[in-house]
Amino acid sequence: MHRDDADNAADHHTGHARHTDHTDHDGEDDDRDGPVSAQGALLSRSPVAGGSGGPTGLLSQLLLAVACGGYATGAALGWGSPEVALVMGDFGLAAAAALASVSCFAYARTHETRFRPAWLLFSVSSAMAAGGNAVWGWYEVVLREPVPSPSLADLFFLCFAPPAIVGLLVLAKRPVTRAGWVCLALDSWLIGGSLLTLSWSLALAHTAHLEGRHESVAHAALSLAYPLLDIVLVSMVLALHFRRSNANRTAINTAIAALALTVLSDALFTSPLLRDNYRSGQLLDAGWFAGSLLLAYAPWGARRASRPAPRDTLREDPAPALPGIRNLSRPIASSLAALTPYLAAAVCTLGILYNVVDGRRVDRVVVFTGCTVVLALVVRQGIMLVDNIALTHELAQKENHFRSLVQGSSDVIMIAAPTGILRYVSPAASGVYGREADDLIGSELASLIHPEDLGLVVHEVRRFLATSPANEPTTRIECRFRSGTGDWLNVESTVNRHQGGLIFNSRDVTERVRLQAQLQHNAEHDPLTDLPNRALFTQRVRKALSGRRVTDHGTAVLFIDLDGFKAVNDTIGHQAGDELLIQAARRLQESVRVADTAARLGGDEFAALILGDGGRDHAAREYQVHEIADRLRLTLSQPYRIEGSEVRVAASIGVAFAEPGITPTDLMRNADLAMYRAKAAGKDRVELYAPQMQAEVVRRSELAARLRTALHDGEFALLHQPVVNLTTGKITAVAAQARWRSAQGILFTPAEFLRVQETGESEAGARTAELGRWLLEEAVEQAAERSKAGHETPVAVRISARRLLDKSMPLGSIEALLTRYGLPSGALVVEISDSDPRVPFEDLERRLMALRRLGVRIALDGFGSGYAAINALRRLPIDVLKLDRGLVEGVVESARLHKITSGLLRIACDLGLQSVADGVDVPEQVLALRAMGCTHGQGMAFSGPLDEYRLRRALSRGDYPVPGMPGAAGRPVLLGTRPSVHSLVRSNTETPVPPT
């Protein structure tokens, strides 16, 4: 066998590296899901960010380097013996090619991708190379005889290139137009023809001439087939290299390295100096061996190393004016692809020049291939020229279209270079920023951003560029931008990545920001006084109780209520009331420190947060805050000038200090309790919170809860106290009084159980109304029953003027009661129990007149104790005048009260009104009142409140003994003595449960 054929066999190694050039077309995402074979796991590397490979990847690279280095070392040293050299030169190369075949097949089988056929073709191609080397070794090593030419090995070697070429076509990025396919074919021919011209000029022509003279035509064709197939394969690789996908660039580069190594080995072998002295197992075989191993490694290890890093490809600028903006690396693949045809033509020209310079006759093959290359170049240039004209026209149309969009947009579009310099600014800048676009171009973006916002902008840009474009293609930045007038505009920008910088799509949102700020202000401030409202005040209190002030116990909250404000609204109108609140808020705001907070909580309630000074003396701080509160009280109590007249109100202030661990809600509640204590103690005063205030609230809450239960469970009882004629002792009426029967058998008077209503809460008011309805209905029902039994004595029911006008007690309800129970006319007396200044006299007068038309008699209760009593006496239709208990109690001891009471009784007598003295408890009071002209009395001098059984017994008896009247000495009544203190207390607070 001729060793010249061995060089042809060596060409089969070229194919191994060529396969790997296209492993990049295999999508990574598809490859990850499939199972990995044992061989694939051995060849693969663990994926890490940045493609550097993990420990497994480094190990596989190290094994690859050791294998290639070991083979090269053995070949350089001659393997120790000629026999081992033959084995390694033949079967060693066969094993390497078989490994590449198995690796490509395993990868294609375990990974379902659209490039699977390419890997199967590469596996077949490597199998052909392995088979050729195995046949070659069979002859040289086993049979120890020359390899015949042609032989089965030649068939294997010739079948290596076609699958590899088809595999390259499968992996390549296919053209989308017919012109693209034509250009691909022309590029392939330009490269192949150029290589053929150069190879023919250098060696192939001489080889063909020698082979044609000494060997058969088949042997000569076989000798030329190997290099020609290599030329075709290399042409396809170069033509399709710049059309590859970016899915797995590292695998492509690995395959190209294997291809380059194998082709270099083939080129060295074609040198006559090496070819004549070549034997299997020499150093040249190491190139083919390394090429096969690189092909085996490419689809596994190189694929994993090429996974994209989590950070984008933008690079940091060394010293950017706007930090964080990075450049994209300039791609050069398109430039090399464009130069490929011209480089091929240059190679063809070099081949022709070589023949001319060497003095040889120009070969017809060289002339033919050179002419076809030139013709292909001209045709390709023509196609490209037509294509470029169409693309230029289309590009101009698109450029005009997008230029119109950009220039007509109301948003400002800016492009910033990596250094932060503005490279482009759209014309909309003049309308948005008040600055011409040309003036902004060339300026630093950082110099136009507000210094307080620059740090946030830089941070956001850096974060955005550090994120993968697939995960976050854009971001939004809002900052203040300097306008042409020097003002700061609120600008919202949508930021996109751009080659060489960033694109900012900006719009002016100043009005929106102002509106948001105004809405936020309105949500946190009182619309009338512009003071902080309850929500903002609570937030300020929470802030004062946290952070560095958490240990500062000098912080205090003041709750302020304007006493008499409701009267201002009722007398001079709500507009004047609003003006008073505005002036009061201004006074309050001017009286507190800058760091403190004055707020309006609602209605006529204000509050102030006085921050602590960090002092340790709690008593001194308490005294200081009390002085501040008292000064506020005096300031708010000064006259207000409203509509040309002076208006006066007072201020009740509650103060609560922050304690360790107290919450804002509890602190404000404590101040509120202290304020209500100030109002209950006489108003126009300052009260400090004390823990017993909370205990009082708890007691009232418990009492209110019990009151609700009592109303629904029927625990209330109705008692009646006789009203006696002071001259005859006859019972002329009975006064209905409600009592609450406690669990201990005690009947509490309204003075006790209605104390829960002092706060004026809506729920308590509802309970009072419910109790009033029950009292009225029960009194009418029992009076009707007594009337049927022959005791036709009128019943007096106490009703407040405000409750009488309340919609919960309409006029028809009293008429319905009288009709339902058949109570005769004049049998019901309504006692107006108070003179609330908020009750309009006109409405009250109309209501009382309507009641009188029903036969209801009207009594004015508590006469002599209220400022409006005389006015009520003047305007209201009154039948009975009932003297207040306070006048009756001192009528004997106090000469002043004696004269006042005597005067009031004369007024009643002159008006023809019946007079009733309430609280007549001792005989001396009876004598004094009768002497003054009082006609009737009610009190313990005659009887206390009676249950229904005892009341009927008293009515059956008919009268009571009257002190100072004939026959009174023998009647069982207290004469000449005052009742004990204990009996007086019991008469006002509690009564034993009467027997049933």
TrEMBL record:
<feature type="transmembrane region" description="Helical">
    <location>
        <begin position="252"/>
        <end position="274"/>
    </location>
</feature>
<dbReference type="InterPro" id="IPR052155">
    <property type="entry name" value="Biofilm_reg_signaling"/>
</dbReference>
<dbReference type="Pfam" id="PF00563">
    <property type="entry name" value="EAL"/>
</dbReference>
<dbReference type="InterPro" id="IPR013656">
    <property type="entry name" value="PAS_4"/>
</dbReference>
<feature type="transmembrane region" description="Helical">
    <location>
        <begin position="151"/>
        <end position="172"/>
    </location>
</feature>
<dbReference type="InterPro" id="IPR000160">
    <property type="entry name" value="GGDEF_dom"/>
</dbReference>
<feature type="domain" description="PAS">
    <location>
        <begin position="398"/>
        <end position="468"/>
    </location>
</feature>
<protein>
    <submittedName>
        <fullName>EAL domain-containing protein</fullName>
    </submittedName>
</protein>
<feature type="region of interest" description="Disordered">
    <location>
        <begin position="1"/>
        <end position="39"/>
    </location>
</feature>
<feature type="transmembrane region" description="Helical">
    <location>
        <begin position="179"/>
        <end position="200"/>
    </location>
</feature>
<dbReference type="Pfam" id="PF00990">
    <property type="entry name" value="GGDEF"/>
</dbReference>
<feature type="transmembrane region" description="Helical">
    <location>
        <begin position="119"/>
        <end position="139"/>
    </location>
</feature>
<feature type="compositionally biased region" description="Basic and acidic residues">
    <location>
        <begin position="1"/>
        <end position="25"/>
    </location>
</feature>
<feature type="transmembrane region" description="Helical">
    <location>
        <begin position="62"/>
        <end position="79"/>
    </location>
</feature>
<feature type="transmembrane region" description="Helical">
    <location>
        <begin position="336"/>
        <end position="356"/>
    </location>
</feature>
<keyword id="KW-0472">Membrane</keyword>
<feature type="transmembrane region" description="Helical">
    <location>
        <begin position="362"/>
        <end position="379"/>
    </location>
</feature>
<dbReference type="InterPro" id="IPR035919">
    <property type="entry name" value="EAL_sf"/>
</dbReference>
<dbReference type="InterPro" id="IPR000014">
    <property type="entry name" value="PAS"/>
</dbReference>
<dbReference type="InterPro" id="IPR001633">
    <property type="entry name" value="EAL_dom"/>
</dbReference>
<dbReference type="Pfam" id="PF08448">
    <property type="entry name" value="PAS_4"/>
</dbReference>
<feature type="domain" description="EAL">
    <location>
        <begin position="700"/>
        <end position="959"/>
    </location>
</feature>
<feature type="transmembrane region" description="Helical">
    <location>
        <begin position="220"/>
        <end position="240"/>
    </location>
</feature>
<dbReference type="InterPro" id="IPR029787">
    <property type="entry name" value="Nucleotide_cyclase"/>
</dbReference>
<keyword id="KW-1133">Transmembrane helix</keyword>
<keyword id="KW-0812">Transmembrane</keyword>
<feature type="transmembrane region" description="Helical">
    <location>
        <begin position="85"/>
        <end position="107"/>
    </location>
</feature>
<dbReference type="InterPro" id="IPR043128">
    <property type="entry name" value="Rev_trsase/Diguanyl_cyclase"/>
</dbReference>
<feature type="domain" description="GGDEF">
    <location>
        <begin position="553"/>
        <end position="691"/>
    </location>
</feature>
<dbReference type="InterPro" id="IPR035965">
    <property type="entry name" value="PAS-like_dom_sf"/>
</dbReference>
